[in-house]
Design a protein that fits this description.
Layout (H helix, E strand, L loop, with lengths): L3 H8 L11 E6 L2 E6 L17 E6 L17 E7 L15 E6 L1 H8 L10 E8 L2 H13 L5 H20 L13 H13 L6 H7 L4 H12 L3 H18 L5 H7 L5 H12 L3 H8 L2
Antiparallel strand pairs: 1-2, 2-5, 3-4, 3-5, 4-6
Helix pairs in contact: 3-4, 6-7, 9-10
């Protein structure tokens, strides 16, 4: 099998080509994607096996999860699970392709993770959400990996790095649904404006004026293109920004409310609780790094 040396480095020296007879493998240096094609991976069901790399399993919303979801599943997101290197585990055999498995080399993954945080958590089946758009990127990676196109090594290097960062950001709660980015020039420009200026006082009328449209026409166009109203989109962006600040201890909750563009602490707390079913202080206590 092509790239068996890299597969052994990522999965474990004892894996054999026979173990992968039911699996399609797409491999490049520090990154491997395994997709079931005819059945389950025979290595995955070995009792108490471990890998020298980080393993990420992404499941695709069937009722037959490998492990019961312990977190709230959201629309447009998949359930993902990560296991650190050398953590014993075993998977049940699944006869149909309802999940993908990703292996990322330990040194490479940790070098990228340390760009975000000073310490690397130890993951033992930690669950997190990852945007549906990752599937497009994985399929693009698989396509490029399976072709012998000129300079494929260059594009695969870029794709594996981008995928790794997408996974790390998702682990840290920094998901972003790329399908919500409009291809309409006006709406896309306003979305970028909101991302850059969400901490400032912005009204829907300000946004409409920026788009050179009436408020009613702007509301209608934005909602049609993005799926939610501009007001709700602005609140969502502000709340996402607050999550990152709450996980650190640089600012008080009141300061975060101001930095994220909320008119008051009470407004921030109410919006936060409505979205996450807990108040900002409870979130900080639970997820502070």
């Amino acid at each position: 099998m092509k790239n068996m040396e890299i597969i052994k480095k990522l999965v474990g020296e004892s894996i054999t080509e026979s173990n992968l007879k039911n699996v399609d493998c797409y491999v490049h240096k520090n990154f491997a994607l395994f997709i079931q094609s005819m059945g389950f991976c025979e290595f995955a069901v070995k009792e108490k096996h471990a890998h020298p790399s980080y393993m990420i399993i992404i499941e695709f919303g069937t009722d037959d999860f490998l492990t019961a979801p312990k977190i709230e599943l959201k629309r447009n997101y998949y359930l993902a699970t990560i296991v650190s290197p050398n953590v014993p585990h075993e998977d049940k055999g699944v006869d149909f392709p309802n999940y993908y498995t990703i292996m990322i080399g330990k040194e490479f993954f940790e070098s990228q993770f340390l760009l975000y945080q000073d310490e690397i958590p130890h993951y033992v089946g930690h669950q997190f959400l990852i945007c549906h758009d990752v599937l497009k990127m994985l399929h693009l990676y698989a396509f490029e990996s399976s072709k012998n196109m000129k300079n494929a090594e260059i594009t695969l290097e870029c794709q594996t790095k981008l995928l790794t960062h997408w996974i790390i950001r998702s682990l840290l709660g920094e998901n972003y649904d790329m399908r919500s980015v409009s291809t309409n020039e006006r709406v896309g420009r306003i979305q970028t404006y909101i991302e850059l200026h969400c901490g400032e006082k912005i009204s829907v009328s300000d946004l409409a004026k920026n788009a050179n449209m009436s408020v009613s026409n702007f509301n209608r166009l934005f909602t049609r293109e993005v799926g939610i109203s501009p007001k709700n989109y602005l609140t969502s962006v502000r709340l996402n920004k607050s999550l990152n600040l709450l996980r650190r201890n640089d600012f008080s909750v009141s300061e975060i409310a101001v930095k994220c563009g909320f008119s008051s602490l009470s407004h921030f707390s109410a919006a936060f609780k409505n979205e996450y079913d807990m108040n900002p202080t409870e979130y900080r206590e639970k997820y502070q790094v």
